[in-house]
User: Fold these one by one.
Assistant:
Number 1:
Amino acid sequence: MTQANEKKRALNIIWNGAEDYSFQSEFAVYDENGKAGLYINYIIGAAYKYYDGEILKDFFNYLRTDSDHEFYEQLTWIGLENSTYHKGIKERPVLKKLRENYSKKVLSGEITLFERAILNEIKLAHYKRVLGEKPRTEARILDILNELEFDEHMDTQQIIVRMNEIIKKYFKFRAGSYEFQLDNHKEKKKADTEEFYEEKKENAEEDSGYSLMKDLIVESAETTRDFYFEQVENKKNDNLIIRKLNFKKAKTDRNYIEKYYGVSILPEHKISSLEKSICVGNHKKAQLHITRGEFDAATLNDVDAAYNKKVANEQKESNIKYYNDNYARNNNSIKNLTNKIRNTMMVNFDSDFVRSDYGKIDATKVWRSIHINDSKIFSREMKNDIGNITVDILLDCSASQYERQEIIAAQGYIIAESLTRCQIPVKVYSFCSLRGYTIINIFRDYEETDKNERIFSYRASGCNRDGLAIRTSLYMMEKEQSENKILIVLSDCKPNDIETNPGTGIIPKQTEYSGIRGVNDTAYEVKKGIMNGSTIMCVFTGEDEDLPSAKKIYGHNFVRISYLERFADIVGVMLQNQLKNL
């Protein structure tokens, strides 16, 4: 009933914006909790009030002839938001406050970013302008944005012409064999595309079992306050039925992930075998992608891959700059943390002298060799070798960490460098989730003692399926021969993935991997890892509201860094306590 009420509320907001209660919107906006979003729903309705709805509808249908149509639809809505707002503000002054609040949520990360990096930059730059801030981004992004922020004096035809120019000028638009024409567009579209859409509909129904309906994800559900668009269809009985149409193909998604994060380090058959072992239970629908962030020749020649690599390099440079700007503090943190670890090792890993069949002869034991044939008449120093310890550092790189990227990269580097100086083998990698894949990006392996700078390649994006990431970490750690295995997780303890958990029971009901469900699943994986002998601790990087989640997941084995100057002291105490218990 709550869901039905929120759908009615969304439609009322849209109808109010459109000032037409007979208008059947293709889109509606809800947050992750199913509540109707006020500002964007108004924009949807008002766009069809101020512009020719039939032309807009046909233009969106035209965009859907491209395999990457979601990207172009999202881009178009950014432009429509700008012009629609400026038209509406004259009649409704309250929009100014609503827009400002929405912009602040976008820039603070409360509204999750898109999957596409270039779309994220355009959106962030747009809403920075809304708040009167100057966007700091490359010239190409500003060029696109300048053309995309439609003027309120433009009519529908002018907007469509401009949008056509943008997608052809800046992007590889791969539409059907026809061009969208404004003149007699209805007749031309019907003549040119009727067969195309009939075939597409038949194939979609045959492949998926659903009607021709698709979720248009405008914002990836990574936080608890993000939004998504739903397309709806008016049936003969006038009921609005919302259904999902899954066009995802495994190969297409894998290629997309490789273009965004880099190629897999494992062949397909090994990944498949790994998924059969790990992607079970709550993660039955999930897939894995393990990479080192490297791109092959095929992906490097792709425009999107090249752009993603460029953005990744820019973030790496930003991470390094932040570290160097605070070099004195960071260097002191490394020295202090190194000393704390060394002191703990000296106290708790003392040497013992044991009887042996080689070493320094013990004169008091020579008789044992003569009379009872005991060869252990030597004394040998046995060190409680530090080599019996390995440490894995797992960095949460989901989009909710967007505002803390430089800090987290520096923290990961400080811990790894300190452990390396103590000759403790360290492995560092990050995790996030996108399109059903949990991506593990390995920065350095245990034996790569001179590769800590790769940690500065850390970049936030996507969602986060914490339970699966920790399960994967523990699986990889099991393969190591060390007696004592430590996992350090840097996370905001906010597990949230757009992909649902598989349904169970007589009538399977899918549940979202978020909130208490995500926290409980992650806590279970941590507890299971501890029961199997691993040491798991957390450096909490989130907000006050997520502290209860951190306590639920990690118990007392987590620390929060309020002041970066105390990073070494706080993390040092945590590591000292854990090392003493090994």
Note: Residues 188-197, 199-249, 503-509 have pLDDT under 50 and may be disordered.
Number 2:
Amino acid sequence: MASEKKQSVLNGAMMLMFAVVLVKLIGALFKIPLTDMLGATGRGYFNSAYEVYTPIFAISMAGLPVAVSRMVAENVALNKYRDARMVFRVSQRIFILVGIVGTLVLLLAAYPYTVFVAGSKSLPAVLCVAPSIFFCCYMSAYRGYYEGLRNMTPTAISQVIEALGKLLIGLALAKIVISVGVNQYEAGMLASGNVSSVVFGNTVTSDTEANSVIIPWAAAGAVMGVTVGSIASTVFLIIRHKLKGDGFTRVQLVNSPKAAPSDSIAKEMIKIAIPMVISALVLNITNLIDTVTIQSRLISALNSDFNTVMQMHSEAFNEAVRLSRLNINDIKEVKNYLWGVYGTALDFKNLVPTITIQLGVSALPALAAAWAVKEKSSIKSTVETVIRISMLVALPAGIGMAALSKPILEIIYARGLSSDAIPSVVPILAAYGLATPVMAISTPTTNMLQAIGRTDIPVKSVVVGAIVKIICNFVLVGNPKINIYGAVVGTVLFYVVIVVCNLTSLIKISQVKVNWKSVFVKPAICAALCGITAFAANGLLTTLFPSDPSQSIINMGTISAVISIGLAVIVYAVSLLLIKGIAREDVIVLPKGEKIAKTLEKYGLLG
């Protein structure tokens, strides 16, 4: 089609997956030192800015990038290259408007939100993150365009640039603000004979008062890194587009029919996006209701039968009381403790789905193009590839997480303030591990439905799933014998409903006959062997070489877990090859994949 080669679904997904893993690592490098600099209070200001930014950002971004990607892919498949370019130009104008509106909404919401909800000291951080909505929206026109052209490289690179900007600029600004503030305080105290000092225009008389002035602005500096990262990413995409363009040749453009009017393209784009905006609204409202109902029903459970709840979590409660982290006589404090237990497990819930989401992003333009020209073989290949690779990744990762839930938590939290909660978090993490394959396929199935023009189905499935989730919260969380574990059931059922609705609809509409033996049964068998290996190896090693995980990160418990994971990976890989659970196209995307594939084919190890 163009001078720039199209990427296959797996090539594009691998590119995005690598970028996401790198972004996650950069995020960890950002948050760990940031917490050390700001402390818990400063992280609270930082998090408060994100809590109001995230829903407004999600609604502003909902639908339009997907609409651009799909429309571009369809037009290119039909050789309508002028239309594809017109889609890009129209999307730029729409994204500028949406970005301005989103930024203004956040700026207008900043004062009432910080005064009535988060606290007025969070205001500088909220104001600093607001402009990033505009730049994120604008850059999404470029990302959606290149994704529609099945070129995921610009998106991947821009994501890494965005994360690096946050890391380098955010930490630097936070450090500078703290240094300047401390210098002002020390100079003022020296000049006044330790009576008072002026820090950022505020008179303070102690270290505590000085910190209360400095930390909110340091948090704002850290958040400014988010905005600077989005600006840097946008600049990269603009420059790249100026230098390399989209790869369309003059011949392709000359032979392409005249582009449709911009207003009709805009209407089509908005028509595609509206159901996804509704879905984003439903999800955000559901999350809000989820938070309220879980906590209110926990109070009901505790008031109804406190002793039953106490017995269920006795190990965690007793340790928390011993360490003076919990007043067992205060029901609200116990409720907050259980809510924190749930939140600790949520940190792990989206680890694997964050990776498999990239399969959906990569598959959307490929499937949209195949659907536009009715290439049944390509439609079947794309649908099966997304499901198979999602299962190949999610099944072993999820089962492994369930099998090693306790050692994983001990490695991360045994020396911190959450160590007492581990006994109560383990069942939640194990449940989410077993549910990981379902959660991992939810977004990719949504993307594939969007690719074939059925954006309405994911909205309906989300609404039904949300209703099920809220009912579960009310009935199960309020039951003293289930309490916080009821929230886990509700979340899992939420994803089950979405996947069942999406997948059955996708198969019915696309008329694809999925080879379930290849995409699910074989990976499931190998993942089960993987989980058994991990559980048995860790149990044996910890019995032979017991250790105290609270002493240091590097101990026999950590070593046992790492060895168990290594053995489980080997068992999974070997068993997959023996039962021919890997296809040739899965291998060729790897470094030296062609050579590896030929070797495996020689010994009859590919399916």
Note: The chain has a mean pLDDT of 87.
